[in-house]
Batch of 2 targets.
Target 1
Amino acid sequence: MHTTHRTSPPPAAGIIWIKLAVLYLLVGVGMGLVMGASQDFTLRPVHVHVNLLGWTTLALAGIIYTVFPQAGHSTLARIHFWTLNLALPVMMGALAYLLLTGDKGAIPYLGAAEIMAAASIVAFAANLFLNLRAQ
Ligand code: HEM
């Protein structure tokens, strides 16, 4: 009888993305509750980007990388992961600091983090176009 030897598949590429995403959701929802309770909406742009870039964008990437492991395990996925996950906390911190203090010293940090976050999205788009195929 012919047997095929199959190596066990690598761990789902999306798990780390989804776990980080839900941490952003906890922070984003917490901020929403605080903003609503205090009626102070100064940090609304931070709330919005923590939820939409942190929760939604990371979770969608995690699901896509789980469904399409070639894309999830590619070099572009690694570039996407590190650029986004290093840029986003800096971007959110610098934006929060700028909104709370008005200190324009935060702007270079914010700008650099925004460019890095945008570059991560370019890597994501390139990854999907190059490496997304039917399994
Ligand atoms: C329990 C969870 C949440 C609470 C309590 C909450 C609360 C809030 C509050 C108080 C505002 C400001 C509203 C204003 O300025 O009048 C806001 C704005 C916003 N939130 Fe949330 N939020 C929650 C979850 C989310 C999630 C999960 C997302 C996206 C995935 C999100 C996206 C937004 C957006 C886009 C705005 C801006 C809306 C605008 O300025 O017109 N929020 N939220």
Note: The radius of gyration is 18 Å.
Target 2
Amino acid sequence: MAGEPEQKADAVASSSPAVPLNDLKRGYEALAEELEAAATRVLRNGWYVHGPEHQAFEREFGEYLGGVECIGVGNGTDALEISLKSLLPSPGSVVVTAANAGMYSSTAIRRAGLIPRYADVDPETLLLTPESVEAVLGDDVSVVVVTHLYGRLADVAGIRAVARARGVAVLEDCAQAAGAGEPGRRAGGLGDVAAFSFYPTKNLGALGDGGAITTRRPDVAEQARRLRQYGWEAKYRVGQDGGRNSRLDELQAAFLRVRLPHLDDWNQRRREVIARYVEAADGVRVRVLPASGADHVGHLAVLVAQDRAAVRAALDAAGIQSDVHYPVPDHQQAPFVDHFASVSLPVTEEMAGRILTLPCFPELGKDEVDRVCTVLRDL
Ligand SMILES: Cc1ncc(COP(=O)(O)O)c(C=O)c1O
């Protein structure tokens, strides 16, 4: 509706259904005092862009990820686009990516003047694999984008091995996987470069838009720092073509600094919620994708059902909100459908009609989880 604030479907207001898919207000309330103190600090400081909060967040997030360089940007899609450009791919070259990850990588690939090519995903994990990537690699490929979908670490080492053999770089899309892995081997430090989103529903969410690029490669970090700010190598001196303005603002950086120390606990809580769903769905006609262990941070609780409409109707009847991440594979999105008409991705296409996302966020109450479990058990 005109004039209404835009929110993605997974960021619903708290007053909606009995069990909402997400409730951002609860996340604010849990840390209200600290978040408000952080906002006040920024307002009173008078430095609103690339100030001390931003510098501190870059340092703290880089340390959390195991000593990587961190470059704050405006959102996750910008992080993907600038990461791609930082790798200096040949103009017009091909980027391999998955088609089941919400069109974000495709958007960034097009914005960077590159061409997407899709690899299919594994039917158990819904992630790219070294084999599926290798099947579509060619001399025209410059980069592979690996999305840690739903919070689960993909096999970056395996994909890197097949990519490296052809001189192809690997970009991790960590938007859904902040904190996945273990200290020293975390998402964001495994490929050549990585992109994070701090969209409010993410595991590490801001109170508005935000994003970051991380890398262990000093050359890539230098390019990214230039490209996020007009291509400047020094103030008002452009050293790199293709730059733009994408900055993580000072308020969001301050909020993220309040939230980062809680990330591991929140990720654990998400895993516990998903473990309850897995247990409840044992023996019924749906499969809940498990999220156990450090390599999964339970960003989304996703089930696979033969008859998704019936499952959704049962959830609806119990006042439980659900959604689909994502209903249309990238190669079948309207602007692409003619161009990719001959592309067939059997697993991606089948799963788009079977997946369903259940409520999962750290502040979800025990009674709410019980309510979802009752519906799952009765399926
Ligand atoms: C996998 C993935 N990549 C990229 C993005 C883009 O992030 P943003 O919305 O901050 O641009 C998102 C989330 O929105 C995402 O889930």
Note: The longest strand covers residues 141-147.
